[in-house]
Amino acid sequence: MSTVPFDRSTLPPDLPGKRRNIKLGDVVLRILFWLLVIFILIYTIFPFAWALLASIKPNADISSTPTRYLPSEIYWGNLDYVLHQRDFLYALRNSIVVSVSTVAIALVFGSLAAYALGRIKFRGRTATLYVILAMTMFPAIAILGSLFQMMRRFDLYNTIPGLVLTYMTFTLPFTVWVLANFFKAMPGELEEAALVDGSTPFQAFYKIMLPLALPGLVTTGLLAFIAAWNEFLFSLTFTNTYAARTVQPAIASFRGNTQFDEPWGSIMAAAVVVTIPLVILVLIFQRKILAGLTAGAVKG
Amino acid sequence: MVHHAMRTTDQRSQVGDCPTWLLKHCGVAMSQNVPAGAVVSTPDGQTIKVSDRPQTSWAKSRERLGWLMVLPSLVIVALVALYPLVESFRLSFTNARLASAREVENIGLRNYEYLWNSDTFRIAFGNTVKFTVFSVGIELVLGMVIALIINSQFKARGLVRTAILIPWAIPTVVSSRLWAYMLNDNYGVINDVLVNQLPRMFSWIPLVGDNIAGIFPDEKIAFLARPAFALPSAIAVDVWKTTPFMALLLLAGLQIIPSDVYEAAVVDGASKWKQFWQITLPLLRPAILVALIFRTLDAFRVFDVIYVMFGSKVETLTLSIFTQNALVDGDRLGRASAASVIIFLCIGVFVLIYTRLVKVEEV
Q: Is the separation of the CB atoms in A182 and A213 below 8 Å?
């Protein structure tokens, strides 16, 4: 009787003998993977954490060499200074008014247009959608000069309504585009049922579809708010006093209470005040934002 | 004309004032072909006379409603975007100024001629191209790594996904100032990490540690003051801020790749590396293309990051900063318009490609 030689390679791969060999390589890969994950976490979180720390460090810590990582004591002076500085508070007020009105107007007109583009078949719809899509990527700089002239002519230069109007160039097309996709994806049964029950098409829109579209409205509104809050070029160019100037140019030109060096303590304090509400909003609504962010760019 | 168009969009006959598709709500099966003028009965015993009017006021009013709802947005967009765009083109052929009462004259292509011969404009163009190519290129590679990581299963996945949203949420102006502080040549944390912390960390590793520690600079680098480091510093800030967005776009593409393709590859014994190059990358091509174009047309008009860090210094001057300067500081409305038309045309090419890629018809 001949014996068949034992051949390891014929064993199924999940037998313990084979597994131990793979594990060594796996461990190395795992370690590399986790090092990469840790690196990404530090890379994304550290700079903002650094700003947070700087906003509560005494000024001596901020400009000390060698670099001081943790504050020697918690110092509220810079935050206090920023929150009592008149220009900064005006800028903060302007930013809130401009961003909220921009979002409100964009949502009202945007949802009307988006419903029509998403659910009603009419001639010129495809062409309109192309125009809207192209407008979402419109370079603001291309119209800076002519907008400037327009603002001067209609006495809108350095006014809040003027700024809100120019902010429509980037918020309205975006709102229409994202919401049109949202309305299009909604099931039609409820709307049809409402029509059968005798509501007019417009009633079907604002009584049935609009409440159902609330999650989409929240996401889109939030993204439009962030875009308006972070806008810099228009605010810098179309305002020259704190009657209308928003926080972004205010932070860009922040000079604090010393003239000799950049007052990093107050700059970072101002930056943190402007950014914290945004970061909190983003962390709360992160799932919605993830969905809306990519819908604005990828989904056709 | 209009009559014909409506026939093609809705050729079915109507019940009273409703199109045929509403019949199903009365219980009439959609599959049956209802001729105009016929009487159909619903399951609950009612009879409905289908309208023999071939054209319906209903469809007409619905189309009118569609236009009415789109109109306000179209008017606003026309007013604040399309009209100014046409104006930009027109002004680019004039010597218009903002603050002058002088008669505006048509000067033909003189503004474009000026820009063509201007060294500053040429530098701005070169810087813009450099900035765009490097920032988008680095973001693509980094974004891909991050997207692959969040697409795989591991414990801290949710944490990483949340963390990458932070740079994205921070206003560009803030991140620019924050990085300027971190890149400071005296007390900036990045110089401290490069010159002190990292060499100290690596010198603990036996045998090779000292060699690795040797590659770090001995002296602090003036990132913002030295011309050679200025543009790279701006690129670094942009990469930090926008890589999350790139990663999210690529992640959306990764998630629609069906998993059975990978299962088949595993059966065939393909390594992870091979799977990436032969399955993931080809299937991700459309998502990569969309992300690249989207980011390119965004990077090409860069203004905030660089303006906040460097103002209008020549080594980091970009087309947008050149234009804003010509307009606000130089009071050259005509010349600034010519520059903005050039930016618009460059970006327009990318927008065209982009709108071809995103299928509008399906909406």
A: yes
